[in-house]
Amino acid sequence: QVQLVESGGGLVQAGGSLRLSCAASGRTFSSNAKAWFRQAPGKEREFVAAISGSGSTTYYSDSVKGRFTISRDNAENTVYLQMSSLKPEDTAVYYCAVDATARFKSWGTATRTNEYAYWGQGTQVTVSS
Questions:
Q1: What is the CA radius of gyration of the chain?
Q2: What helix, strand, coil percent values describe the chain, rounded to 5?
Q3: What is the DSSP letter of 128?
C-alpha cells in the first residue's frame, strides 16, 4: 500500500526557515515527478514546487521562487521542501504529491493537482509576523 507521510511543519517567525520532508512507502518513486502544494483556510489548493523524476527540472510558483527549494533523496524515497525567508502569507497546510507513473511533466501539467495520484495527509506551517 502506498503511503506518503509529511513532517517538519510547525510554527516559525517571519524570516525563519523550515524543512519539510515527505517519506514514501509501498513502492519506489525515483523516476516519478514529485510536488508540493499548499492550502490556506478558505482558499483552493495551490501549486508550490515540483521536481522531475530525473531531478533535472524543477518548477516553482512565483510566490515562492527564490525562497523555497525542492529536492529528493532517491535512496530514502523522500522528497524535501526547504523553505527560507518565510512570510505570513506562506501559512498553510502543505501537501506532498507523487505521480503514479514515470512521465515527463511540463509546467502546464506539473502544476495541476489532478496530475498526481498519491498525496500525503498534510503538515501545518504557520508563520507569525
A1: 14
A2: 10, 45, 45
A3: E
Q: What is the pLDDT of residues 18-56, one digit of tens each?
A: 999 999 999 899 899 999 999 999 999 999 999 999 899
φ, ψ dihedrals at 127, nearest 5° = -115, 120
Q: Would you call 111 helix, strand, or coil by DSSP?
A: coil
Tell me what the pLDDT averaged over the chain comes to. Answer: 95
CA–CA gap between residue 64 and residue 112 (Å, rounded): 17
Distance of CA 38 to the CA centre of its chain: 8
Q: Which residues of 87-117 are buried (b: 16+ CB within 10 A; e: fewer)?
A: eeebbbbbbbbbbeeeeebeeeebbeeebbe
Task: Report in angstroms the alpha-carbon separations of 59 from 6, 48, 92, 109.
Answer: 20, 8, 19, 11
